[in-house]
Amino acid sequence: MSFIKGLAAFERLSDEVTATEAGLRESLFGANPAAEVAIGFAGDEPAGFAVFFHNYSTFLGQRGMYLEDVYVVPEHRSNGLGKLLLSHVAGIAVDRGCGRFEWSVLDWNESAARFYKELGAEVMGDWRTFRIDGDALGKLANSAIPEQ
Predict the structure, then answer these.
(1) Could you give the residue numbers annotated as active site?
(2) Domains in the chain, ordered, with CATH?
(3) Could you give the count of Cα atoms lying within 13 Å of 83 in the half-sphere of its Cβ?
(4) Cβ distance 102 to 64 under 8 Å?
(5) Closest to 120 (Cα-Cα) out of 76, 74, 71, 86
(6) How far apart are alpha carbons 4 and 10 in whole angstroms?
(7) What is the residue-level pLDDT of the chain in tens, covering all 148 positions?
(8) 16, 57, 54: which is closest to 35 by C-alpha?
(9) What is the pTM (predicted TM-score) of this model?
(10) 4/24 Cα distance (integer angstroms)
């Protein structure tokens, strides 16, 4: 939870965190995990994390890997831990036969964008991320149910 709260504060989205420790325990480590987590350490101290899951490319006809979040606590940045976490998840993607490894970056986070470009990542300039949640998600879901 401390990593998630730190990431949310950095991204100026603290008011959007509704996750609980119990919910994370179930959704990440329960019987049917929705995602996986890699924890990065500085010595014996947890210092960062990466949350990732599989997606699918119809064009490639194979699954890919999506990085939901990567975060390193401020005092352990610039020592290679972020790159190590990305490299670790990329290795999992390769081992599992994934055709892609993708993630999103906030448009104002220029230092992250530079870092990712240095690793060989490309900005997908023609694509925009859309999201639907809350009441709008429920409304869309219910619109598929025919009225009786």
Answers:
(1) 116
(2) 2-143 (3.40.630.30)
(3) 10
(4) yes
(5) 86
(6) 10
(7) 999 999 999 999 999 999 999 999 999 999 999 999 999 999 999 999 999 999 999 999 999 999 999 999 999 998 999 999 999 999 999 999 999 999 999 989 999 999 999 999 999 988 888 889 889 999 998 887 776 6
(8) 54
(9) 0.88
(10) 11
